[in-house]
From TrEMBL:
Compositional bias ranges of the Low complexity kind: 699-710
Span of the signal peptide: none
Domain PH: 60-184
Pfam family, one: PH_Niban2
Compositionally biased intervals (Polar residues): 734-744
Stored InterPro entries: Niban-like, Niban_1/2/3_dom, PH-like_dom_sf, PH_domain
Homology family: Belongs to the Niban family.
Biased composition (Basic and acidic residues): 648-659
PROSITE patterns reported in the protein's UniProt record: PH_DOMAIN
Species for this entry: Rynchops niger
Stretch list, region Disordered: 617-752
Record protein name field: NIBL1 protein
Amino acid sequence: CLTRLCSPLAEKTGKVLGEFCRCYKEQYGVALFNSVRYEIEGNGGPQAQLLHRKVPLEDHVIYSGNIFQYIEENKKWRNRFCVVPHNYGLVLYENKLAYERELPPRVLINSAGYKVLTSVDQYLELVNSSLPGVTPKSGHSPILKCPTDFPLILWHPYARHYYFCVMTGKEQEKWRAVFQDCVRHCNNGISEDSKVEAPAFTDAIRMYRQSKEQYGTWDMLCGNETQVLSNLVMEELLPELRTTIGPRLKGKAQERQRTWIQISDAVYRMVYEQTKAQYDAAMAKCEQERPQMESTIRTDMDQIITSKEHLASKIRAFVLPKAEICVRNHVQPYISSILEALMTPTSQGFAEVREVFFKEVTDMNMNIVNEGGLEKLVEYMEKLSHLAFHPVKMQSCYEKMDQLKLEGLQQRFDVSSTSVFKQRAQIHMRQQMDDAVYTFETLLHQELGKLQGKDDLCKSIQRILERVLKKYDYDSSTVRKKFFREALLQITIPFLLKKLAPTCKGVRGGWTGRGGGAWRVLPSTLSPSDISLLVSPAVKEAAVQRKHNLYRDSMVLHNSDPNLHLLGEGIPIDWGEEYSGQPEAESAADKRRRAKQVVSVIQDDEGVLPYEVGAEELLQPGSPEPREPKEPEEPDPAAAPSSPDGVQEIREALAKESLGEADVPSRASVQHTAPPSPKPRADVPSEATVPHAPPAASPAPGAETPSPSAGMACHQPSDKETGEEVASLGGQCSPLQPTSTTESGEGVQTEF
């Protein structure tokens, strides 16, 4: 039935994209005008006190370690070596040895739009709601059973799902923090550096959804432009697809659910390919017309501004009286409640960022006093430079936003979810942490040449820390106030537009002759001027409350430290190369193996599940819960070794492992761990918390190995590994069969 639907789906996708591209072309001109006007007039806000890292950290790995993945094709769990590079793509290899030998990865996952679940029950609830009327009867096996009590599931409303599990709760918490950081980063896929394309795209999305009478926040504004557009198309296609295909699915409830997930993923891939081609063509056309448009804008700037103000004044005269009544009756009474709900968790999160930064620097200073020397400073500074990218250490900051609840306000203002605001605040937290760290290391690097001995070094670190904290307090206050204003507008403006739409539709035909679509000017007429006047007093009033630790708007620091910003223009600091005393150049392979890792590893070697079990056994109706098998009296030399349980057994196994690895120097010489911590930390469990099994043997001659023709170059994971490049689906309907991970290694799954 999918083959028959191929042509109608492509036609529907083309229609949706055609409407969007018309909106995009209009908004591209508006965004270009605003960009040129800002360039000419300038209207910058307060100057940031902290330095911003201009060259991103690209030589580190966020995390790497072993994790069990469920392979749907053979219905078995397999141990995989997962690497999270600096671009936050999830890259899964056959094992650690395959990564070290630069073999092609098995799976590449871009986690934009995914949710991280740590409970099978949560997952089953989402799966059951995705296909109404298809729910397994009680007593029957669900679609998924996990062999341990610590699952990690990546769920997406349209794309395929990924199933993982680990052995301990500590591992689960660590992987959950890593996965959530990947989702958070990939969701923020539209570059804010673009002053024309990015605002044109987001405004076009908003305009398109408003044309469909969808005014509220949208959870699927996730990923890069092609991913967001694919989500937009799937939002319209899915109900029709569910109605058409749902009744035709055969088999038990679990099989129908599994088939539906595969069909949805196949359609999503087809939509993605068509969307990418059509959007790229629309962008290329706008870029081609940009020079002429920009020339016209610069020449006629005064006339355009005059016409815009004339049109806006006429619309405002018609709409503003109704808007004021609506705001007074339906919005203003709730602004304080919305602001309080936003400010409390956000301020706590930024306070925690400050505390984490203070603690890390203070601990470093104390350890330098105890251990001494510039060598230790270099070691600690390399770790500190990655603090903002440490998912586990930053988790205490991020989780403060979990308290954000809008309660009844969420229904009143048509806010589908608070996740949009949570993730935005968390991204600000990470950026402020990185700015504080970068400012600290820049100032400390400048001071090093003037210091005399250990005591001077420690006093200088303390003095610089206090200086950076003052700058952080000012910048975090500015960032939070801006975030609060934007969030209030994002909540209230869609509500106002929805309320005013029925009474203002008469405007649509009145002024189109002069302005060309005056109705589209209405949101921009209301949002920046009139409604913000209602929002700003509430933010200013909250700024004087000491519990939120916000500076008043009257407190503005102008060029308080001009020399500092000149330092930020210099070459990025590489503590290891500058102070390590090792002039020898490293090969690319050695640098890859010794890439700095932000999170220390819990489980570095491959392990085995408490019991190896396939899905055929797990999915048997009424099958008992799997139990760990008893150890045989006479161990079979050919059997795979199980994980040791006792401390003595662990030590014996590790001793045997160290002897056995003498013949494999390439494995023994590679350690994917960060430099040793100055003291044990509760938030970073040690490697000894998980039993280590002997490493897997190298593939025997003739065994199946990943094919070099998989299309992946054997090199350090690049930005392409976040899935932005996918295998071409061509123009036929046959590729609608879901592309999947293959155990034979003949192909590489590249997720979006």
